[in-house]
Amino acid sequence: MELKELKKRMKGVDVLQTTPFNSDGSLDLEGMRANTRWLAERVVGRDFIITPVGSTGEFYAMSEDEIKAVIKMVVEEVNGRAVVLAGAAGAGTQQAIKMVKYAESVGADGVQTVLPYYHSPEEEGMYLHYKKIAESVNSNFGIMIYNNPDVSGSWIRPHLMKRLSEIPNIIAVKENTMSIMSYYRERRLIDPEDMAILCGSGEQMFAFESVVGCSGFITGWANFDTDLPYSVYQAAMARDFDRLNELIRTYDDFWKFIAKVTANHGPTTNVPGVHDFLAGYMFFGVIKAAMDIVGLRGGEVRLPLVGINDKEKAELRDILKAMKVI
Question: Residue 152: its pLDDT value, please?
Fold first, then answer.
């Protein structure tokens, strides 16, 4: 795909695919294949991006061979029906480049690559990290920066993001700031012809950011239901904010449930002030349980994360019924 066309498609709903694992902890690649087929059938002709082995895909708990197998399979199964931006993370630049080049070699349209984690670089180091990644691949291969301080300990501030946006094939950022003013400033600094700025924090934050022109958001919900998040996107694009508010409120019981199971399985080891809006990562197990309930292959989470129990799954089923997901 030409870079110009790929840039135009940096909008809509970016589905962060989960990775199913068997009860013995092994990768359920055929389950992942079935999930991908289900998803690809439902997103064709609509503004969707598919991202395997990102944070929601638990890439950090997978071997390099497992990650490569998933990326290759997803590209093959999607087969051009949607944009595929594969997760390609690395704490070091050379590690990241290796996975980015692999994603390119098997036909992905681009990658979504999180900030260097463990050690936080200086601004020049961060700039060079992404510049080297961008230069390591074909000029039509797209790079989406995953600007998430919660998982990396770093954050690219708007002035540095503007500088990065001027690198031709860095075409988008998954922006996870929880500050609407920081998002607003970033939008005002960056030429939309250079970089799309998508909401990295899901439907609720997107409802606020869409007011100032956000063109899409990242979600895990579409792993088991593509219709509700796409309706959220359509309402925002139509500037129908009454409808958008109504749709966002339909998620309320689901988010309350996540808070409840987080408390049930707590306390979390989060550093105070980090992930306060989620209070942890129990939602990975909730999404996988929802997938199982609708007939997909959610499977297990891998340690150190834990899933939800049978009683909680029964409650989740009732919530999904009330939401008309099942």
Answer: 85
